């Protein structure tokens, strides 16, 4: 957890201990013959190279420059994915039914899974550690404006904050507002501005 997210900090040993538990479980599963030594690396490579926030960034960039595509993305995210040059499986595990909430000057959207850690893996990648933390899930639901401020997002009181409970049935993510100063930029240049946090609603996009 970066230190600039003080509301969701944890002991430095937490990730080290979690990694040790995962390694022990992996070793046990290999010993039992349930997986092979390459299984975990194969899955991780899949979500590092084929399914991740680079897909969401391409979708957002296309929506910023193509109003018809933006309308499709907001109406049917999975159908919009089919129009892109994406790997097969975008509507597979963790992305069966994805929906997109659009930020506007008057509405700011934030995603959260109040039950566990449901997340649109094909478009945003693997969820960050803090997203799964019960503290974040509880506090962003109870005091979203304060939490956003801790992430560095200061919103005027006139801006409505909407929370979207992403679940096993619907995986929500956010279409951020296009930043001022990005006029004339190519789709690739626009996509490079996007971060997973912006598409989760806990950050804004800047040039």
UniProtKB/TrEMBL annotation:
Organism, as annotated: Almyronema epifaneia S1
Domain (Nitrile hydratase alpha/Thiocyanate hydrolase gamma): residue spans on this chain: 19-203
Family: Belongs to the nitrile hydratase subunit alpha family.
Molecular function terms from GO: nitrile hydratase activity
Pfam families, alphabetized: NHase_alpha (PF02979)
Catalytic activity: an aliphatic primary amide = an aliphatic nitrile + H2O
Keyword Metal-binding included in the entry's annotation: yes
Keyword field: Lyase, Metal-binding
Enzyme class, UniProt record, top EC level: lyase
InterPro entries reported in the protein's UniProt record: CN_Hdrase_a/SCN_Hdrase_g_sf, CN_Hdrtase_a/SCN_Hdrlase_g, CN_Hdrtase_asu/SCN_Hdrlase_gsu, Nitrile_hydratase_asu
Top-rank taxon, per record: Bacteria
UniProt-listed Enzyme Commission number(s): 4.2.1.84
TM ranges: none
The UniProt record lists the keyword Metal-binding: yes
UniProt-recorded name of the protein: nitrile hydratase
């Amino acid at each position: 957890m970066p230190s600039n997210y003080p509301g969701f900090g944890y002991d430095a040993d937490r990730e080290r201990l979690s990694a040790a538990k995962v390694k022990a479980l992996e070793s046990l599963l290999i010993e039992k013959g349930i997986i092979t030594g390459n299984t975990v690396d194969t899955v991780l490579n899949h979500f590092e190279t084929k399914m991740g926030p680079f897909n969401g960034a391409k979708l957002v960039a296309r929506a910023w420059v193509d109003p018809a595509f933006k309308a499709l993305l907001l109406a049917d995210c999975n159908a919009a994915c089919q129009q892109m040059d994406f790997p097969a499986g975008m509507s597979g595990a963790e992305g069966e039914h994805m929906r997109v909430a659009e930020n506007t000057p008057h509405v700011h959207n934030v995603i959260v899974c109040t039950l566990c850690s449901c997340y649109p893996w094909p478009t945003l990648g693997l969820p960050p550690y803090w997203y799964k933390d019960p503290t974040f899930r509880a506090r962003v639901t109870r005091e979203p404006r304060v939490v956003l401020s801790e992430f560095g997002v200061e919103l005027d009181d006139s801006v409505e904050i909407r929370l979207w409970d992403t679940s096993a049935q619907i995986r929500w993510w956010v279409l951020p507002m296009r930043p001022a100063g990005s006029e004339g930029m190519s789709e690739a240049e626009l996509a490079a501005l996007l971060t997973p946090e912006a598409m989760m609603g806990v950050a804004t996009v800047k040039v």
